[in-house]
Predict the 3D structure of the following.
Amino acid sequence: MKKLVILLFCAFSAQAEDMEVVGNVQSKCIVTPDTAGVYGNPTPDVLSTDPTDGGVDPVVRFDVIQASMYKARILYPTSFSESPALNDVVTWTGDVATSQVSDTGMSGYDAAKVEFDNVTEFSLTVAGSTWFKTETQADYGYGKAFPGGVYRAVVSAECIAI
Amino acid sequence: MYRYLILLLMMSGYANAHEFTPTYPKLKNSYVEGVLYTTMTLFNKRPDVEYYQFNVFDKDWNKVPFAMQDKTMRIKHLEKKKIDVYIREKDRKEVKYICSKSKLVVGGSSKTSISSRICSKIK
């Protein structure tokens, strides 16, 4: 009887074994809209996201896990996606720049950026997070007042593998 | 080491992002002769976006014909979806980028919206 108890104890006792924990860090880019932009209307013919004009610059965050695998491409708008009927030309200007970085190595991003048309490209050469703000302004006609209504434009934030 | 840990924690904690992986997908033979495919994963952490559009491009950003279940797909907030992208074998050398783009809903107040696009590269 005693032997049977010992046998049962041995059969059900916990066994120590090595267990494996497996992880996989893969290269990826994550695009996160951080701040929605708002147009200020400092003069009747201007809509601007500049805070000095009463607007809010839209901010988007790019996270990359591994360095030099992606480039950020940000396009400021050149048309409204929603607006009242406009019968004159709208002139668009814009500028994209870093507003915050998670690593001091990213401080050179602005100096190295490439700009053409409404596009600004940054090579994401350092792993971490970078916040980019886009300042955009729309001027209507020759000193013409924008008609009343809702205006909406879209900033495009692209992360492209290189 | 801690820097990467903090970065990983930051990335996992945000629930307002667009994620499209892998960075460098590999084309494989499909069950149909002359057709290749790759599986992409889209994780929608943007609460303001429910639809994503997919496209395939060559190195000069010209569109390349491709097939998938739906080229514009509904992916709910915090949903992760595996997507098979099918490409003709004869286009193998042309294909360079597979992209996903968020589709924004028209409406809302007078503000600037942000559209996100992530492109993976076939090497």
The longest helix of chain A spans residues 2-12. Helices of chain A lie at 2-12, 109-112.
